[in-house]
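Sequence only, no structure available. Ideas?
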Amino acid sequence: MKIQQLHTLFLECHSACTDTRKIKENDMFFALKGDNFNGNTYAEQAIKLGAKYVIIDEAEFSKNSQTVLVDNVLETLQELASFHRTFLNIPIIALTGSNGKTTTKELINATLSKKHKTTATVGNLNNHIGVPLTLLSMNKNTEIGIVEMGANHLKEIVFLCQIAKPDYGYITNFGKAHLEGFGGVEGVIKGKSEMYDYLIEHNKTIFVNANDSIQLEKTKKATTYTFGNKNKMPDVRIDFMEAQPFVICAYNNFTIESQLIGDYNFSNIAAAIAIGNYFEVDDKAIKQAIETYVPANNRSQIMQKGSNKIILDAYNANPTSMAAALNNFEKQTGNKVAIIGDMFELGDESAQEHQNIVDLANLLNIDSIILLGENFYQTRIDSSKSTKYKSFSDFKGAFKPASIKDATLLIKGSRGMAMERILDIL
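Reply:
I predicted one. Tokens follow.
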């Protein structure tokens, strides 16, 4: 079946789905395969659950006119998504970066939705499956699409750009993330910059943080829309005021008081303000969007547990975001306890990067540091204020919640560490 014919069938459907547990009536189900599963075996079940059509790539599971046999389900999903994107012909904003992608995406969505009907990536569905699903979630009512793109190796971002065909792009930053897959920081910069390369080649517009020298250098030959308060005069001036603990900034005679902690969130907020400005969102609406956005999903959440204030930043971690979180945490007042977990996907740099974080934490004005995980357990500790545990179970067995009172706690680690579990024992 040609992709145009399949798209005609898709337009009869509610949306695209790859998980039978999430099927809605009249969905188009894509029977993807993985290392430990074969979606083709769920074809009949998907139809029973309400799927209008099921896309399969193994003929033995073709039961009736509701099953559509293709050569490769994943490639068909990607090709259909790209065709659908062209069919809709709406502005697509793509964003990637080492840190802050999802927060920035949500801020941009909150800002643009004040004037436009937007569809944005849900959660962090930002890979070779998530990006197609995001595109297929857009419909005739969508006026602007916002697509988050993640990558852990070279050529991944350019591949996602070829699917989504973005008109605009923004890279949050270049940090020490996925060093194993990218082969070091230079590989990270090269990999993320594939978005710049695509947008420049197709004469599209790049949003640039003018405070970031790497972004300025990489976009010299591009059509840009800049923001910030340093270096060359930006298209939109946005000034950082303070982060005690929440970020406050100034824009067009407005003071914007966010609910995001850490001065590292200033650039995420500034990007959303600038993009809102570019798409002609009213200044008052921009201010309201930023000020009412509340972080969730373990991203810089502030909560109270008994007498303790907790900064839960446990969605993910890498050396750059961990260092930023610790430096910001030092600015807190009172008794400060940092509970930090291992950082993953660092390859040959893992031992040194974990040691660097330990050394930094011990230099900072933080009263107590608790290290969790096998990587941190291998580090050298030169301070009596640090304690390390090889596993979460070791920590749970030794930790006495009553020993921490009237304190501010930072909880941060890579997703695989599931550091939010600490909330249950505090």
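The chain has a mean pLDDT of 93.
Hope that gets you unstuck.
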